[in-house]
Amino acid sequence: MTASSSLTLGRRYSLEVIRAVRNGLLLDGGSLGDVLLPSREAGDLQPGDSVLVTLYNDGQGSTMASVKAPKVQRGEVASLGVVSTSKLGAFLDWGMPKDLLLPFAEQTGPLRPGGRALVIVTTDREGRLLASAKLDRFMKDTCNEFQQGDEVSLIAARETDLGWKMVVNNRYWGMIARKELRAPLKHGQRVTGYVQRLREDGKLSLSLNAPGAAKSDALSEQILAALEQAGGELPLGDKSAPDAIFDAFRCSKNAFKQAIGGLYKARKIVIEKDRIRLA
């Protein structure tokens, strides 16, 4: 069993089966006590076996286990679908047997079934799992954890006149300037990004473009994919207008020329006056 001091609701652990009971299997939850894995999920497990489970609360506040992997774990941010609403708040689908409550006090606007909410999974004062859409309480505005060029996980949280405010690694706020976007982002979209600049005030400037050689390789792959999708030929070349290149690949003309030059040297494409084609 994972060290009992680290066990917390809303996360996944490998726990040992203690014994079988009428309605399932009891697992060793350490300081949380015995945890029930219901019969419908017990399979062929026997006492002494270990099983990977997610810990959660049932409707009566008891700790339960499920072999299902949640869409988001405690301490993580995700866009979740609204299943239903009640006098308590909205219930969200997080991939577990019991839907996740987003109380009215933790909402930032009205929600309806079929809609979505960008939330973090957390707990209330009694330790019960819930969701919160008030991300400002959980995200830090400044950070000294990263270096320029570091790869980070991003979630699009809020569009502004300058670009998009992003959740960085579930812990920080960062900003992507509009000019850095290769394509429009959607609220709640998860993307891989990079630390573009460490500002003097400690805030993060972000980019979706990989630095250096990695950026060139990614653009080359993007060009090859576009060529294959277009039947092997694109009406773009080293004489094309910068705007046309940017509209197609969200990159500068110089970066485009470097990428197609590398593909030409690798004998993957042929460069003509006003177009490129697969070799």
TrEMBL record:
Q: Which residues form the Conserved virulence factor B-like winged helix domain?
A: 221-278
Pfam family membership, one: WHD_CvfB
Q: Which SUPFAM superfamilies match?
A: Nucleic acid-binding proteins
Q: Which domain of life is it from?
A: Bacteria
Q: Ranges for the Conserved virulence factor B first S1 domain?
A: 9-67
Q: Which family does it belong to?
A: Belongs to the CvfB family.
**Full protein name:** GntR family transcriptional regulator
Its source organism is Alcanivorax nanhaiticus
